Amino acid sequence: MEVKESIQMALGSLKTHKLRSVLTTLGIIVGVTTVVGMLSLTQGLKRSIEDQVRSLGANTFTVRKFPAIITSGKQWRKYARRKNLTYEDALAIEELCPSVQTVAPDINLYPGETIRYRGESTDRVPIWGVTETYLDVFSYFVQWGRFITPTDVEHRRKVCVLGANILNRLFPYEDPVGKYVRSGPHRFLVVGILEEKGSFMGQSQDNLVMIPLTTLQKIAGERLNVDIGVQAKGPGSWNAALDEVTTLLRRRRGLPYNEPNDFEILTQDSLMEMFNNITGAAFAVVIGVASISLLVGGIGIMNIMLVTVTERTREIGIRKALGAKRSDILWQFLIEATVLSGVGGTLGVLLGFSIGKLVGVLSPLPAVVPIWTIFLGLGFSSVVGLFFGIYPATKAARLDPIVALHYE
Questions:
Q1: Which residues pair with 192 in a beta bridge?
Q2: Which of 21, 49, 191, 290 could potentially form a cystine with 14 if both were Cys, beta carbons 3.0 to 4.6 Å apart?
Q3: What would the pLDDT profile of 292-347 be if each residue is shown by its tens digit?
Q4: CB atoms within 10 A of CB 363
């Protein structure tokens, strides 16, 4: 009953001094809102990235000349000096690596070309040169029509498969299969349409045109860099495939044993690690800002509780004269401080949840609010209330009842 009465008195004090209570808890509200909002966006984005990474294909990895992320021009110049990977490297992997099931080389032309159909056009469309194995390794699917065939690759045919975005822009009201699109002076017969795949790490996977890799080499040059997708024969062969590909490419590229690889191998684990490193740094900054807000909020709670102790000195004296123990007074004010911060934490959780959902509605960024983030926000605010409420509560508990009764 004493705890229940203390909570009721704390809520009564909040109601009596509404504006003061709101201003006192503002730092707690801002801090918890920031933590919960950031966590909801981070967790949602992480879940989305995990789903997309899994969709890249089971037991696969990609061999590239460049790493997935380049942060400066200096880095780009460093990696640009590496030898290009070639179509012949891909064929060698397919032939000489026994743990490899499928190899899917591809060439990407960025930032892209203008694709035209009659009076319609769309700019900056990436052109991907691929072989017939690309669908098997990277989990793309044909919605209708067909994909690139070995015959298309062998004879360097000018055929293409369109991504969903290109279909919507150039052929909103007709079937494109059997029609011709143009890229510069070249005409390509549309043979198929890819299923919509969405975006990966902020980049659309549907804004593209796929043509035979050898056709792209004929048009743009044989010396273009090739990315090589590799699919192992099974989960038990994945590490063996990775070692075989690495050893083969080091030998083909003439690397001494004491030099590092001059190519990158991107796996599902490495992509997730890269994502966690990026979001981890951003989250650390946000946590720092939120911690400052919580500290300010805690200091505000301590300040207002000290004022409350002073205002209620006679009340404390009367309670002690009627038999209240030091522990009773101590718990009364600790509970008041905790309730004050708990209300701020609750409002912060609600605001953070709402902001996360709002961002999810207004943007492509997903938002997920795990249950543990709610308890984390409430726990943070309660701990702050307890920590910064200890000194005012102790001061109140130590008041001499005779001095307190004579306080004006």
A1: 145, 161
A2: 21
A3: 777 777 787 777 777 777 766 677 677 767 776 777 777 777 777 777 788 888 88
A4: 10
Question: Could you give the CA distance from residue 226 to residue 107 in angstroms, rounded to a whole number?
Answer: 5
SS (H, E, C) 344-359: HHHHHHHHHHHHHHHH
How far is the C-alpha of 338 from the C-alpha of 6, rounded, in Å? 11
What whole-number distance in Å separates Cα of residue 265 and Cα of residue 85? 12
CA 386-31-275 angle, 5° bins: 125
Q: Which residues contact 385 (CB under 8 A, 6 or more apart)?
A: 28, 298, 301, 337, 338, 339, 340, 341, 342
What residue spans of 56-155 are helical by DSSP H? 73-80, 87-96, 134-138, 150-154
- Of 237, 240, 242, residue with least CA distance to 266: 242
Rounded to whole angstroms, how far apart are CA atoms 367 and 360?
5
Residues 51, 49: Cα–Cα separation, whole Å: 5
pLDDT at 1 over 50: no
Query: Which comes out higher in pLDDT, residue 66 or 54?
Result: 66
